[in-house]
Request: fold
Amino acid sequence: GPSEVVIPQPTSAYLRLPAFVLDINSTYQFSMHASTKDSQGYAVGDTNVTFTVHISDEPVRAVISGGSERLVSLSAGPNITFEGGESVDPAYISSRLSFNWSLTNVANGNPLPLRAISSTAALVSTDILIANQTYLLELVTTSNASRWDRSGRTQQIIRTTDADIPFVSIRASSGLYHNVQTKLSLSAVLRNGNASKAGGGGGFGQQWLCTSANFNLSDSRNLLSGTTAENLVIRPNALASGSTYSFAVRAWYSAEEGYQHGEASIVVKTNYPPVFGSCESSPQIGIAMTTVYRLSCDGWTTGTSLP
Reply:
């Protein structure tokens, strides 16, 4: 079970504990005794309160840049690079993570070799990939910051083609969950496999889609940008709380619109409304323009990593 907790200031009106003192997946019981004294120092009232605190485990967030699914061209270059640098341990933000990559051919289950090129990235040679196949990329990140064995896992679907298309990936402004009260920004990151087409044809064209079909991108009231812009920006409060959306972007060389396109998609989950909290006023009764009130709210949670 959890060890006894040493409270630095046990006679303070506020219970404050240093970070990382409480164990993950543990429940603690705290007791408070408060007394009131008169002007002579005699006790005139007291109370005892006992409450419990449960420390939940928020897993390490493993993130593969580019979205949930990508269509890549085998003619875009000798290698395809995968980046996991957006991964984080929310309980230990500054902690170092270790990365374990794997790539599997979905059709036959055969693993393919990946080569680490930095502490957060790996690549695969396009020579060993087959066009018109689906591959499963998996990343397991492990936190080295604490005495607990904590890790996170994520996957990305890679579809291959031998067509000469742009290399597309997506970046999101939010983390694991999006707060619906803020705007959501999705950025299309485009890289050309054929510099002459991108340059001579006027660059890239792109189109955003909601592939989960539960959000209307054609309604301009939902957006702060157009659906053909490089960045898709969705207005605050346009998305529903506690929902899951899938957005995709298709991109092509401007000179070849409607012919061949690269594509990437991303899954966005929104947080639930805050619940389980309470707000208090101390004192509860006073005199207008005279009494100083202390208002406090505590215990509110969205059930996600968002406050």
